[in-house]
Amino acid sequence: MNNSTKPGEKMKSREEYTNNLSIVNTSGVFINFISELYSMNKTAEKIVHNFNAGPSILPKPVFEEASRSIIDFNNTGLSILEIGHRTQLFQDVIDEAIALIKELMLLDDEHEVLFLHGGASSQFFQMPMNLLHDDAKAAYTDTGVWAAKAIKEAALYGNVDVVCSSKEQNYNHLPKSFHVDPASAYLHLTTNNTIYGTQWQDLSLFYNKGVPLVADMSSDILSRVLDFNRFELIYAGAQKNIGAAGVNLVIVNKKCLGKVYRKIPSMLDYRNHIEAGSLLNTPPVFAIYVCLLTLRWLKSIGGVAEAEKQNYIKAALLYDAIDAHDLFNGTVAKEDRSKMNVCFTMENTDLEKEFLSLCKEEGMIGVKGHRSAGGFRVSLYNAVPYESVVAITDLMNYFAKKNV
Ligand code: PMP
After folding, report:
1. Are residues 145 and 27 in the same domain?
2. Residues 26, 32: contact at Cβ < 8 Å?
3. Mutate which of 122, 145, 146, 240 for ligand 1 pocket (most atoms within 8 A of beta carbon)
């Protein structure tokens, strides 16, 4: 029963109900105001440039549509937050999201698309639980904190062969010369190292190792064209290029499943999720919906190829600004520079503090580097507008000239 309806009183229609509630009317106005601010990329006072590493900026039309759907999803009179996950309404959402992933990533029919709980960190253990025998061996590349966490979890299920590591050099480059035992169950890589700002540019290095490939693509998925079908399994937290935090994407070649003999809890067995179409239990409905909106946006701008082109231009602009001034030091090997997370430092820590507070004054959010890397990290995910990159490079040029 509606809590404003006394027993015996006729239940009010949703429209009557909302019209009679000033708070709802006010929040309607508020939503309009908020989405207007978003569409201008502004707070009430100033422009905001969001360089957060994740959760991070999403496209403005996604915020606008998601806000509207919280009030009224697809003119149903229902909020997206209150629809059942077993309704046709949500089935349409998840079906379209899966179809868009397949289309945008050009996946073949062997590859299944799953939306799962637990973030990318849960894949560090769920994946080996499904793919690695107790007595088998998996090869891992140790290229950052997230890769190291993946290694630690895999060791709970089988033998781990760390085939290369740049840990001793604070992960400032990607080690390219390594041997992989052809008997390895799989070779794991982190395509983009979010904290340190390195990214494997040429994945053909992995393609000819002769073992199945598994990749954590959390921070560069959908940002560049890759032959995704070459991977046995891909996983990624949604909160950078895919959508809202709370869900992760798993793409798995179904042929690689069912080969380990251990008992796998139902919720952790990929085969159950495939069979249930990612609806084994209540999925994160809203987070998946935001993924759908983001995927629609990506398709509308020209897909992954167009995103790649724009990401290349944005990253080049920022790296050029770093290289143009002695004041800034790029922290990683040039050939391994990430187009998603651009990291740099200054020799003088007082100047670092001054630059950070200047960024804050200018509405630049998320510029401070991760505590393991220090300095600055500017994340340039798909939704970061070119104008924001121009704004930060202008500020860098100004600051460098002021401090020659
Ligand atoms: N892998 C990479 C490359 C990441 O960047 C992150 C988070 N930033 C993770 C894994 C962990 O993701 P989650 O917080 O979704 O577990």
Report:
1. no
2. no
3. 146
d(CA 245, CA 284): 10
Task: Kindly report the pTM of this predicted structure.
Answer: 0.90
Question: What does the DSSP 8-state code read for residue 94?
Answer: H
Render 52-78 in DSSP notation, one character per residue.
Answer: -SSS----HHHHHHHHHHHH-GGGSSS
Q: Angle CA(241)–CA(243)–CA(244) in degrees, nearest 5?
A: 125
What single-letter DSSP state applies at residue 201? Answer: S
Contact by Cβ (8 Å): 149, 277: no
Q: Is the pLDDT of residue 160 over 90?
A: yes
Tell me, what's the pLDDT at 30? Answer: 44
Q: Does the structure show a pLDDT above 50 at 100?
A: yes
Work out the number of other CB atoms within 10 angstroms of the CB of residue 69. 21
Taking only the tens place, the pLDDT of each residue in 293-315 is 999 999 999 999 999 999 999 99
Q: Taking a C-beta distance cutoff of 8 angstroms, is the pair 222, 298 a contact?
A: yes
User: 233 with 351, same domain?
Assistant: no
- In whole angstroms, what is the distance from residue 71 CA to residue 81 CA? 9
* Ligand 1 binding pocket mutation candidate from 153, 194, 340 (most atoms within 8 A of CB): 194
Atom of ligand 1 at shortest range from CA of 195: 5
Q: Which helix (H) or strand (E) holds 390?
A: helix 386-402
Judged against a pLDDT cut of 80, whether residue 11 lies above it is answered with no
- Domain range for 33: 7-58+302-402
Domain total of the chain:
2
pLDDT digits (tens, 9 = 90+) for 224-246: 999 999 999 999 999 999 999 99
Cβ of 125 below 6 Å from ligand 1: no
Asked whether the beta carbons of 80 and 70 are under 8 A apart, the reply is yes
Q: Are residues 266 and 371 in the same domain?
A: no
Whether residue 109 is predicted with pLDDT greater than 50 in this model: the reply is yes
Q: Tokens 């200018």 sit at which residue? A: 362
